[in-house]
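Readers of this paper often ask what the protein records in our data store actually look like. Such a record has a labelled line for the sequence and another for the backbone structure tokens. Nothing more is needed to write down the fold, since each code stands for a local backbone conformation. The record that follows is passed on verbatim for readers who wish to inspect the format.
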Amino acid sequence: MKRFVKFVLVIIAAFALISCGRKQQSLEEMQEPVAMDALTSMNVTATIAAPATQEIKPAVIPASSIEQPEAVGLSGFVKPTGEEIQTALKNAGFYEGSIDGKVGPMTKKAIEEFQKANNLQPDGKVGPKTWVALSTHLNPPAAGKKR
């Protein structure tokens, strides 16, 4: 009787191993790339595939909700460093502190003053429009010239 039970267990284990191998093989077959001509010959129901006449339209975002750097002469705005902001503000005569790269209350106040003087919205942040105006002061004026 023990031999019969062992025999049955060995048969069940062998069957399980064979079945797992087949499942793995099926999974590997499903993961193979499919050629375009094979896709066109597949039979797909209408509930899965969109009709060929249906046009897919891109989402439209109102231009008023997007700040457009192109309008101020930039193709891609790169945020300036704190040191660049402070240097430009100092050269423009709006910042008296040390250039340490930390945009703190003194720097933000100088940014707001610069924005007011240049007819920009005084929010204390250096965005694309502010940076276009401020970056012209990044290099110090040449000797003998006054601003």
